[in-house]
Amino acid sequence: MVLTCPVAKGRTRQHDRGPGHSRRNLLRVGALLALGGATGPLTGCDLFDGDEPDPAPDPLEPLAAEARELAARHRAALAADPGLTKTLTPIAEAHEAHAAELAKLFGRPASASSGTPSAGASAGGDRRATLTGLREAEQRGRESAAKLCAGAPAERAALLGSIAAARATHVEALK
Amino acid sequence: MIRRQTPSGPAQALADALAAEYAAIFAYAPIGVRLTDAARTAARRAEAAHRARRDALVLQLSAAGDPAPADKAGYALPFPVTDAASALRLAVEVEERTAAFWRAALPHTTGADRNRALAALTDCAVRATRWRRTAGVNPVTVAFPGRPD
Q1: From B126, B128, B141, residue closest to A91, measured CB to CB
Q2: For residue A160, which residues of chain B lie inside 8 Å, CB to CB?
Q3: pLDDT tens, B51-99?
Q4: What ipTM does this complex have?
């Protein structure tokens, strides 16, 4: 395995880079991989890092992703309209705090796929439309958090309840 | 045969929430007196909401065969209510404190009971936000409503 890894890795790199790779090359890579598979388990080999089975995703991962996305939406909106700073900054910070608290629950750092603001969240510079969009997003967020709270194990219920309630207060604050 | 009791946790959590609702109802009387117009109307509505939660809790506890604590004649307020500003400050505090009791009930409840506790926590948190806005407190929201500091 120690021997097969670097070889296989080299092949894949070539494969990725080369526009003119032949079917034969691909087959050769396949053969090497098969060989690697025969010589021993391939876990730990660079080539397969991406394929290593992740620990089962936590059922709250989507909620954490939603928190990051909401934070990013508020950040984008206040970048576009600094007059909203007083209203939106604490809300963005709350979502970031929620994401951090959930990540602690998962026992691993927050996933790299940080939320990107949804297109059109603030593009027009129309403040009323911005606030309406944010309010609707908070309302949806509140519902998803409430749903998760309803079915959560006891040790997670309080945090989820606070997140759902916080999102409800955001709807109010954006009025 | 002795009926199998639910663990003392849930009953105690809901009894604590009921005591908090009694205190909230008590506090809204002096609060309402010091407010006028829209704020006074909001205080009346808030008081009515707490009364509704109280009634539902008493029913819930007695339906489960659990003891419901009795209301007291009076509750110590954290500070005297002497004007509109202190009334608004107390209203925020009442909602924050009551929210904490409902949040504490969440781990001890399941199903419809948990949904009720969450609805109560959410209502308290939203009212606290409204009162902060009326009082000119900024920010009007907190990151984790009901969470002890």
Answers
A1: B141
A2: 106
A3: 999 999 999 999 999 999 999 999 999 999 999 999 999 999 999 999 9
A4: 0.93
